[in-house]
Write a structure and sequence with these properties.
3 helices, 3-stranded antiparallel beta sheet, alpha+beta, single chain, 6-stranded antiparallel beta sheet
């Protein structure tokens, strides 16, 4: 077990506000906690306030902080924090990841139609949908690099936890060198490949 699990959160010290996610809007918190933990270190987390992307972190739900989730970057892996990520390069995708078991299906599902208060959305198996997205982006000369930001953990109808995805557009990080942009792209892709391979067993 990682020693990070025992790391304390001291809010008396300055804390990156983007790494403390409010969960007041989540009705079924335990289900939401289990769901978001499926993506721990499989999707990178972005902080706009410090322009950093965290690729190695733990998710905590400290009882003394109430209904909050804290993203704790690994302090012993400073090289896993990517710097200089301009918020102009981060965009919402309109894509949502759902737990398949809620629909009686294995693995994770992906949808782009999710209306609060409406009927359950039409969805596709995550691996199948992701393969299509990557293929379509490649035809456009682009890459699909999904990441998470504060607020991406949500709940449908106070019952179903889901994740909204943002994406990083490395071609807009013009202030970084080609090597740096390539490193960022490769890092996110490695994480995404891990999620892709395990998607049928998650959710």
């Amino acid at each position: 077990m990682s020693s990070m699990k025992h790391q304390e959160v001291d809010l008396s010290k300055p804390v990156n506000p983007d790494l403390i996610w409010e969960l007041d809007h989540i009705a079924r918190r335990e289900m939401a906690e289990r769901f978001i933990q499926l993506f721990e270190n499989r999707l990178c987390v972005y902080s706009e306030s410090v322009r950093q992307l965290y690729t190695n972190y733990n998710l905590h739900f400290p009882a003394d902080l109430g209904r909050k989730m804290v993203v704790l970057p690994n302090p012993y892996a400073f090289h896993d924090t990517l710097h200089g990520i301009d918020s102009l390069a981060v965009r919402p995708t309109g894509l949502f990841i759902l737990p398949g078991r809620v629909f009686g299906k294995p693995g994770l599902l992906l949808t782009k139609q999710l209306n609060e208060g409406g009927s359950m959305p039409k969805s596709m198996p995550f691996k199948q949908a992701l393969a299509q997205i990557i293929s379509n982006q490649k035809k456009l000369g682009d890459v699909f690099l999904p990441i998470l930001i504060k607020g991406d953990l949500r709940e449908f109808g106070q019952q179903l936890p889901y994740l909204h995805l943002h994406r990083l557009q490395v071609n807009k990080l013009s202030h970084l060198s080609n090597f740096e942009r390539s490193d960022i792209q490769n890092t996110i892709t490695r994480k995404l490949l891990m999620l892709y391979r395990q998607a049928d067993t998650l959710g």
